[in-house]
Each structure stands twice: as C-alpha cells, then as structure tokens.
C-alpha cells in the first residue's frame, strides 16, 4: 500500500449521517429513543447487574481512505462497551479512541499506560493490514499519507459495537451479559450503521458474536478459514472472523504481539485480506 489518501469531507458526511440516524432511532441528548428499549431492559433480570443504554459508535478522523485509488474503510466489530456508561455520544466515543492512540502504548512505558488487550489486538490487526508488521514499538503504529503527513492507525477505522446497550453482572465487571432479546433487537441498528459507514474491510473480534453479525449480510462466501466475502445493501466487503483479543488461552491474542493465535490465525488472515484488497478482489 503506497498512495494512501484520506477524504476528510466524506468522513464528516458519514459522521453526520450516522449522528442523524442515532438521534432519530437511538439517542438524542438524554432522550433514549430506541423502540426496543422496554423489551431489552425487561429481558435482563440480574437484580445486582447494571444495564447501560445508548452507547453510540463513531468513525475515526481518518476513516475514509483510498489506497492506490481503491476505497479502504475499516470497521472493527466488538460486542458492547466494556465501560458500561449510559448515553455515550459519538464524540465521546471518538475521543476515547483518540486518547488510546495518543496517551497509551502497546506496552507500558515511562509516562504511558498500556492499552487494554482489546485495543492491543486491534492495533496488531491494523498493523498487519497496512503492512507495518507486528511489534510493540510506537513508531510502527503510523502510516504515511500521500500529502506527507503521518497518521496513527487508530484514527483510521471505526470501532463499532454490535450492541448499543450493555448489561454487566456488577459494577466492576467488563464481561457482557447481553440477552438474546438484546442481540436480536440491535441487529437493525448494526445493519444501519454498516450501511452508513460502508466498510470495505470488517474485522469481527468475538466468536460468540459472529452468528449474530452474519445476519447483517445479504450474502456470504468463505474465502478462507476465518475470511469471507460479504455483501450488504449493494456494498461488498471482506469480513474476518476472530476470537476476542482477551479470550481465554489459547484463543487470546491481545496480551502481546507474539501470541500463538495472533501468529497462526490472525496474521495469515490479515495478510490474505491485504492481498485480496491489493488485487481488487
């Protein structure tokens, strides 16, 4: 990937379109407008748990990329927000990712905390996709743009949670306890988010979510053990399916850049994505 350009105007257009959708159908200020609100809340019966409604998604500042003239729009799919904070706005979401890019590192070092395993996994996947190779050095997390600037990888994607509400067993837990009702009802919002963002590469981090995510696609064709060509609403994309980066051993791949699952499954799959993208397939 050599000639990489960013269409900031198009990214802003998508941001505004997604904001308009969420404001009408999900969250506008403090008003939670999802028609499924009552059913989803009623389905979560853990009296000691916490249910947080309205956690929005947002594209990064450099989401709309072209590489040698071909559109590269990357979406990484998570299950739900581990923070469990209700009424999270799109700007708050983008700011959190920006803070991860600027103020954290792959491994802790003087003045900087380490990223979570989830964000480490995303960093590794993006490094592979852009051809930077695996590693922990901060300098390897940047890509050169055709205008002479360099941009951090974490500004070049959208982290899209499948669920726009979260349920957790207690105040300090980050492990989601979503119900079948929540997963079923949020499909319409997930599908709408994909249609607005129109990703050409989709990375799904969580094997338990894949059966739900795949329903957002109109067609799905396997092209590898963990890779598919998918179509949705007239768009085409490559979709990679992995475990969550913080899954139990031996399926975890966010602890460091030498984890077996990362080397044996994620790396070859992302190299294949890169090859197919460069060949226009």
Describe this structure in words.
This protein is an alpha/beta fold and 281 residues long. It has a single domain, classed as Uracil-DNA Glycosylase, subunit E. The protein has helices spanning 8-25, 37-43, 90-103, 117-129, 180-185, 187-197, 210-213, 260-278, and strands spanning 4-6, 27-28, 31-32, 50-52, 58-59, 65-67, 70-72, 74-78, 104-105, 113-114, 142-144, 150-152, 158-161, 166-168, 201-205, 219-222, 227-232, 235-242. The protein has a seven-stranded mixed sheet, with helices on both faces. Strands 1-6-7 form a three-stranded antiparallel sheet, with no helix packed on it. Strands 2-3 form a two-stranded antiparallel sheet. Helix 1 (8-25) runs antiparallel to helix 6 (187-197) and helix 4 runs parallel beside helix 8. The longest helix is centred in the C-terminal third of the chain and has 19 residues, at 260-278. It starts with a strand and ends with a helix. The model has no long low-confidence stretch (mean pLDDT 94).
């Amino acid at each position: 990937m050599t000639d990489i350009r960013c269409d900031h105007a198009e990214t802003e257009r998508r941001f505004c379109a997604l904001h308009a959708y969420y404001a009408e159908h999900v969250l506008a200020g403090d008003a939670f407008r999802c028609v499924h609100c009552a059913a989803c809340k009623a389905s979560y019966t853990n009296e000691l748990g916490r249910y947080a409604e309205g956690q929005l998604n947002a594209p990064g500042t450099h989401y709309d990329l072209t590489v040698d003239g071909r559109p590269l729009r990357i979406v990484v799919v998570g299950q739900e927000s581990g923070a469990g904070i209700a009424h999270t706005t799109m700007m708050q979401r983008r700011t959190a990712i920006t803070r991860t890019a600027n103020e954290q590192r792959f491994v802790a070092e003087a003045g900087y905390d380490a990223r979570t395993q989830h964000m480490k996994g995303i960093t590794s996947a993006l490094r592979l996709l852009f051809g930077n190779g695996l590693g922990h050095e901060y300098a390897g997390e940047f890509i050169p743009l055709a205008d002479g600037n360099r941009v951090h990888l974490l500004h070049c994607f959208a982290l899209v949670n499948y669920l726009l509400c979260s349920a957790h067993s207690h105040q300090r837990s980050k492990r989601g306890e979503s119900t079948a009702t929540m997963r079923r009802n949020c499909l319409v919002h997930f599908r709408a988010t994909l249609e607005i963002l129109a990703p050409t590469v989709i990375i799904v981090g969580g094997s338990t979510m894949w059966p739900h995510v795949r329903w957002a696609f109109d067609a799905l064709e396997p092209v590898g053990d963990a890779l598919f060509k998918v179509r949705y609403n007239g768009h085409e994309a490559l979709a990679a399916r992995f475990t969550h980066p913080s899954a139990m051993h031996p399926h975890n791949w966010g602890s460091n850049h030498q984890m077996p699952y990362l080397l044996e499954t994620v790396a070859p799959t992302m190299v294949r994505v890169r090859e197919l993208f460069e060949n226009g397939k």
